[in-house]
Structure formats: structure tokens, C-alpha cells
Amino acid sequence: MAQVSIPDSEVDIVIGAVQSDLASFMEEWRPIFSRYHLIIVKDPDLKDELKVPGGFNVNVYTKSDIDRVVGSSSTTVLFSGYSCRYFGYLMSRKKYIISVDDDCFPARDNKGDIIDIVAQHVSNLTTPATPFFFNTLYDPYRKGADFVRGYPFSLRHGVSCALSCGLWLNLADYDAPTQALKPGHRNSRYVDAVLTVPARTMMPVSGINIGFDRELVGPALFPAMRLAAEGKLRWETVEDIWCGMCVKVVCDHMGIGVKSGLPYVWREERGDAVESLKKEWEGVKLMEEVVPFFHSLRLSKAAVSAEECVVEMAVAVEERLGPVDPVFARAADAMVNWIKLWKVAGTRSAVA
Amino acid sequence: MAVASVSPTPLLKDELDIVIPTIRNLDFLEMWRPFFQRYHLIIVQDGDPSKVIKVPEGFDYELYNRNDINRILGPKASCISFKDSACRCFGYMVSKKKYIYTIDDDCFVAKNPSGEEINALEQHIKNLLSPSTPFFYNTLYDPYREGADFVRGYPFSLREGVPTAVSHGLWLNIPDYDAPTQLVKPRERNTRYVDAVMTIPKGTLFPMCGMNLAFNRELIGPAMYFGLMGDGQPIGRYDDMWAGWCIKVICDHLGLGVKTGLPYIWHSKASNPFVNLKKEYKGIYWQEELIPFFQSATLPKDCTTVQKCYIELSKQVKAKLGKVDDYFLKLADAMVTWIEAWDELNPSEGDSAELANGVGKLTV
Questions:
Q1: What's the domain count of chain B?
Q2: I need a labelling partner for A221 at 20 to 30 A (CA). Which of A94, A266, B2, B81 fits?
Q3: Is B157 inside any structural domain?
């Protein structure tokens, strides 16, 4: 299949800075990132000055910028910690957003070549997804692959891909109990595949390395699920997992696709899983409550856009999960506020 | 880096049969000798029964030709295809083992990217002996593989998994394309080694290829009927597809898992695309009706065994697919004949094990 070539001007790279010194991070990514526009959002809780090397086409947003747009009372509620990147998604006006955590670096593929994650995410997003029938040779649009015998022809045109979930070598995205149990465990397996996650299949979307079509699903990626003991390490968050469950429901409802697999990033060591374990396992417990909810969630035909889907989902969260734990009631509120914010600050007509 | 000690994969040499359909010869077994020799083979000889199929020395095997099939099944032999590799399912029926591995006679030992020969059978056994995870997708693929695990966000109550009923392997070199794709891309070869095994999620259908396939016969055997193909039938090359759609609906209903991915074998022969087109032609149109049928098929709660599920499915095939073509009325009858024959040949098994509904506190 012919690869669509996308102008660089349609891509924004959004980095949520939870650490202040981005010098080595930016230098490592320079060969891949420098041709694109970057949005860096500084965690409003970070006190130190942000260090960003020159030579990039970059907009940096800090606490004062966030305060100005959303009001200072909402800043910490919505955008502290890893969730600061959502402010970048809000401010961007590009069609495609690629976002990686600031402790990730370029990885090498199984041939030893540096992986251009932007090119791979864009390729995933600009080739169709196939959520209605599983192709055993994975992404049929990749060079050297195709649909296999028995794949219905009427499903071969695929649907738009809205979300591309990349993976991680070295420190994989495990939860604290898993990493604490196997402290030396590192992911060294390079799986040379991209595949569409089938419709109505739930998945854990990790915010560490993603790409998405902002025009299609921008409003459906939001900071809503903030744990009481949420920390500055991924082990201490589930905001992206919650958001990922929501965006998968939205994609399934809208008949668009989510891919998972390539590209890989190299994730550096950070934090101590055992230390994180000492915090309450709130996130782990919450996941048990949400799975049956998301599995049975159905949106009405009236919900056509991503915004409408999120509003409907927020009502369902409030009604069905609100009574279970106050964190869900707060999440439902946050989702409603996010859509209001998106309409004011996130659409084309709004001035960044 | 700490390497966890891994217990060796059991051989299962007295619990697994290798079923091979053939019409020519079994020379390919020479390459597989180091991996297959300890296992019992069931050879199903298609085509002219008077031809003598030479089995390489040193293999323990039983061989059935058409005369044997007719003798053993009597009138029920009508459900077993002739002049099509679909006849292999007769081998599943006569086996007395817990596990089956089936492989085509043009499939050879492949090499992994490090250049080592792949023991396909060992990988299938690993796949079958470790759980599947159909209720929630794990982004790092099979969490039970050495070097992998469940990722953050994966609910703990779903980490026990469910029993694996089927292990679907893949192929390097000649890919399993349909005739139209073969005609358009005659030179395409699958050179991409994807180092993953994964569970196909519940509710998702897939095209099951019978070239390199293993399954737990006790869990799903009666549903592995490869349909009516070949001589006297309007369709060919849809035998494994048909079985794959049936087993997936049944596995989803019974809470069993289906895995796909490793192991790879080396597929050496590209069949003639023009011959294939004639065989597949009707299937290409029919599958447009078949897929929605299987996607929406539901089985009642009282179908607690594979046989009950399969008989119920055959009723639905008759009721809903009969209007697509009379062939499906014949096929529905053949599905029933198959179950009758299966139960006759496997009386002590009775119904395949009744399975508890789901594993762990969350069933979705």
C-alpha cells in the first residue's frame, strides 16, 4: 500500500516535563524532533527553572500560562504531574500529536537502527485500522504484509486510525507490584509488529509513548482520574489508563481504530518500584471496579463527535461509578469541565 | 541482568498426536525428524487409496486412507471430505490423545532471526500449557512468556487467564494469501519474524490457517470439523476457515482461549493461484454472509459442552445460512454427522469436559 506522506507542519510533539532538566532528553531526540514544532508543558508543581536547549521550534507553557487559560484554581487539579501534557494537547492546533514521557529516549530496532517514533506513529495514524476482524499477519498495510486468506474483502478498506500506542524497551510500563516482584526484569524483546486492537476489546493505554489524531479524538484524551496519592512516577498514576479506556470506547463507538505495537522507545530507569508499592494500591483496586463498567458501556446514536461521546460517558461514570468511590465522581466532573475547556480553548477558533 | 530460571517444556510425547494429511509423500518428515520422532503420527491419506504412501523409517504412525475412513465410519464417512486436506479432521477424531498438532506436508523447519532452527512443536506446547487472556488486551502480548508480564492497568483479577484451547502458528516464506492476492502479488514472501504470541480477544473472529496448528483435543476437539470441501463440493480452501469461525464462537462462549503468533514454520510451496481461485471463488462471496453470521452467533447458557455448542451452531447454520446456498444445509447436516461420529469413536470421553463459567471474579 502506498504510504501517505504528511507534511511536518501537521505534527506537534508534546512533552510533559515532570523533571526540570530536559537537556539530555532533547539532545538525544534532536535528530528526530528538530524538524517539528514542539510543545513543552512544565508540571505546574515543579519549582526549578526548566532547561530546554536551543535550536528547536518550541512553545513552552508553564504554570502562569496554564493559570491564564484555565484559572489558577483548576491548574493543579487538572494539570499537575504527568497530566501537564494534556494542556499541550489542548493548546495544539495540529492534526497529529506525538507525545512521550521525559524519561524516554530513542531506541534501536532489531537491525540496530535508531527508531524514528514520529514517522512510525504518523504511519500508524495515516494507514487504516482493521478493528472488525483479526489479521493474523498483523498490520496488512505494512510493506511485505497483506490480508490473509479468509479475511473478508468488504472489511479490507479499514477505518481511520485515531490512536497509536507505542511500546517501551528496557523499563517496560509495569505496575509497581509487578516491577517490585521482578526488580531486574527488563523488556528486551523487540516485536516487529503493529496491530489493530479489535473493536470492543478493552486495553490499558499507556501515556508514555503515544500518537493520536487530534481532529478525531482530541477531546477524548483528558486528565480526569487523579489518585489521592498520585505521584511523579508512572507507577503512581492511572490517569492514562482511565483516559485510554474512555478513548477506546469512543473509538469503538465512532467506528475508528486504535493500533498498538511499534514504535518502541527506550525508557530510562527512574524511581523505585518497592517505594511506590508502599503507597496505597488505590489504582490497582480501582481498576477492578472499572472493567465491568467499560465493558458494558454503550453510547447513544446521538453521540456523534468525540465531545458528545465524552459528555455521555461522564454522565454514565457519575451515575454508575460515582456511588462506588468519590474519585469517580471527581473524574466525571473533570470530564465535563474538560469538554467545556476544550470548546473555549481547544478549538480552531480559540486563540492559543 | 537477572535471568529467571525456566523449567523445561514438557515433551508430552504420550499425550500428543501429530496429524498430517497427505496425497503425495512424506519426505518433509526427514527435516522434522529431530523434533517429531518421539511422537505418534496419524497420517490421513487423501486421494487414491491404492497408492502407497511411504513413511520415512523410524516414525511411529497409523495411516488411514479413504477405504479405512469408509470402513470405520460407514455411512457417516460422508462428513469427511475427499480430495481436500480437510480430510485431516478424521485424524482428530480417531486420536486418543489430549493434544493434536497438525501440519501440512509442504511445511518445513524455519529459522529464527538468530539462525537457530525453530522447534515449532515445543512452542505450540508452551502456548497450550500456559493460559490465555481473552478479556483484556495486554500490550506486551503473551504475559506468560519469559521476559514479559502484564502491563500497568491490567486488572489483577484477570491475570489468572483461562485455559488455552488453540495455538495458531504462522509461516515464513510463502504467506497464506487467497487467490486474488496471490495473483496480484506473486512474488511477495513473508520475511518478517514477529517475536510474539498473543491471545485473540473474546468477540473477535480470525482466519484460522490449518497449516501449523495445535489444539487441546479434550477442550475443543469436537468443534474442529473442517467441513465439506473438495470432490463433489462447490468450495475448497475454506475448511480451516470454517473450523476457525466455529471454534472461536465456541471458545468465546465457554471461556477458552485462542492464541496466535509463534511458532513460525517455513512454507515452501505456493499452490497454483488459478486453481485456488476456482476453489475459493464461491467462498469469497459467501464469507461476506458468513462473517456477520458468526459475529452475531450466540449460544444459549445450557450449551455447556463443545458437542452441545456445535449441534446448536449447526441448527443456526441450517436456519440462517440455508438461504445463502443449499450447500449450507448439507454442511449443517454434516456437522451433526461429525458429532455423532465423534461421540461413537470416543465413547469413554462422553461429552467434553463441562467447564466452569469463567475464571476469577470478573467475567466479561
A1: 1
A2: A266
A3: yes
Q: Which residues pair with A196 in a beta bridge?
A: A259
Q: How many domains, chain A?
A: 1
Using the beta-carbon criterion (under 8 Å), do A172 and B140 form an inter-chain contact? yes
Query: Which residues in A lie closer than 8 A to residue B4 (C-beta atoms)?
Result: 182
Nearest CA in chain A to B182: A149
Going by pLDDT thresholds of 50, 70 and 90, the confidence category of residue A228 is confident
- B352 part of a folded domain: no
| Nearest CB to A203; choose among B136, B181, B207 | B136
Residue A2: per-residue pLDDT:
44
For B56, other C-beta atoms within 10 Å of its C-beta total: 15
**Residue B355 within any structural domain of the chain:** no
Structural domain contains residue A2: no
Average pLDDT, chain A: 91
Q: Is the pLDDT of residue A85 over 80?
A: yes
Q: Which whole number is the average pLDDT over A118-133?
A: 97
- What is the CATH classification number for the domain harbouring B53? 3.90.550
For residue B109, what pLDDT band results from cuts at 50, 70 and 90?
very high
Subunit contact A198:B204, Cβ cutoff 8 A: yes
Q: For residue A198, what are the domain limits?
A: 9-349
CATH number, domain with residue A33:
3.90.550
Residue B200 to residue A134, Cβ atoms within 8 A = yes
Does residue A201 sit at the B interface (CB-CB below 8 Å)? yes
Cα separation, A166 vs B125, whole angstroms: 30
Q: Contact at 8 Å (CB) between A84 and A56?
A: no
Q: B144: domain range?
A: 16-346
Contact assignment for A174 to B206 by CB distance below 8 Å: no
Q: Is position B203 within any domain?
A: yes
CB atoms within 10 A of CB A144: 12
Chain B residue numbers touching A189 (CB-CB < 8 A): 147-148, 195
